[in-house]
Amino acid sequence: MRTLSKEILEWEGKEVEMAGWVAGRRDHGKIIFVDLRDRSGITQLVFTPKDKDIYETGNTLRSEWVIRVKGLVQRRPSGMENNDLPTGKHEIQVTRLEVLAQSETPPFSLDTDGNDAGEEMRMQYRYLDIRRPRLTNNLRMRHLVQQYVREFLSARDFVEVETPILGKSTPEGARDYLVPSRLRPGAFYALPQSPQQYKQLLMVAGIERYFQIVRCFRDEDTRGDRQPEFTQLDIEMSFIEQQDILDLAEEMLIGLVRALYPDVILTLDKNGRMPRLTYREAMDTYKTDRPDLRKNTEDPKELAFGIIVDFPAFEWKEQEKRWDAVHHPFTMPQVSDVGEFNEQFEKDPGQIMAYQYDIVLNGYEIAGGSIRIHESELLTRIFEVMGNKRKDIEEKFGHLLKAFQYGVPPHGGIAFGFDRLMMVLQNEPSIREVIAFPKTGDGRDLMMGAPSEVDAEQLKELHIKVDKE
Ligand code: ASP
């Protein structure tokens, strides 16, 4: 039976079998030390010339070979302990050694945190890069946070519902990724920029409390630390007010930080709550709508959340010469009905506030959401003032407007940028460090070589001709 590094303390004086990768080898005269790495940590193996065969094979071991050993768990001689390692007081006196796989010399060293290696190389050999404890730990913590969130929401009667990846284009401000339909020449699916309309339709369907940890796709130009595909924690609720969603999000975030990051300093207000500011207050005080509320920005262990409310509903798009929704067109303006909306819009569109909110963490926007418009008339009017023709509205949003004719509950929601949340929690400089297989800034997967050209035959089936100009 295999014993893991994290378990060897319980096996002192006994024989164990272990397996893993060679993380390093040091020759000390007659003694060879090998660090064995498995998913739980590192254990020191000792080879002495007593057993000639094993010793000689031990001598051939190189970094990243895969081996299986048997040996005796013993205490290291005094003075030889390594207090930096949880297993640093013990070592394995090897009595059997089997090489399971050899390895080429890795293109970069794996016993650093990786920040020294070129990023293109790291992405190309991501399966090696992930062997670093820092990366392995990021993926493990990402899993634990997802597990926490799933349990938290499930315990509150939320249902995780999967929504389609092959869908229809939604107007959320970014360019869609399109997928050609083979069976309907000239027609395309769009990959979801977010499941916004589906989750609202689930509210019409009576699910009442929905969440999903979901992949979203936006075909944007290289802009900062973004990925063409990214993960959202998406939430929607019926029969609630803005306050209810924000309270839920706050309780979940504080709970998960306390449970999974017990060592961090969580900066809250004097009532133990996340500070809430209006958009105006944030802009006046901090000159940004994603203020960094940490007390001491030098401290890598401090987390400061904040909630920003009352965003303006519309912004002027100079290029397109039209008003656009600051969040998305489904967001409820702070008006009582279409009449009041029309009046206010005529006066000054820029002055209309929305039931819209963001959550910020250490100066990053980690979540955003809104209360939705659930009256077809107001929703149609909003589409109109944003420059859509009646006919286009029917074509683009007819399904939603129709669904709203069949008993739509008041509803609202929020979505967390899960990669960004993990980046800040793990104190990493980029979301690429918390994603198993990230893409480059210009959308390439260097390991798989995607995107790639496809066979002429495949294109023909899809009724596509490529124009390379
Ligand atoms: N779908 C929105 C977004 O991706 C979030 C929301 O309003 O729930 O930003």
From TrEMBL:
Domain Aminoacyl-transfer RNA synthetases class-II family profile residue range list: 139-451
SUPFAM superfamilies: Class II aaRS and biotin synthetases, Nucleic acid-binding proteins
Single GO MF annotation: aspartate-tRNA ligase activity
One GO BP annotation of this record: aspartyl-tRNA aminoacylation
Keywords, sorted A to Z: Aminoacyl-tRNA synthetase, ATP-binding, Ligase, Nucleotide-binding, Protein biosynthesis
One GO CC annotation: cytoplasm
Keyword Cytoplasm attached: no
InterPro entries: Aa-tRNA-synt_II (IPR004364), aa-tRNA-synth_II (IPR006195), aa-tRNA-synth_II/BPL/LPL (IPR045864), Asp-tRNA-ligase_1 (IPR004524), Asp-tRNA-ligase_1_N (IPR047089), Asp/Asn-tRNA-synth_IIb (IPR002312), AspRS_core (IPR047090), GAD-like_sf (IPR004115)
Family, similarity comment: Belongs to the class-II aminoacyl-tRNA synthetase family. Type 1 subfamily.
Name assigned to this protein: Aminoacyl-transfer RNA synthetases class-II family profile domain-containing protein
Gene source species: marine sediment metagenome
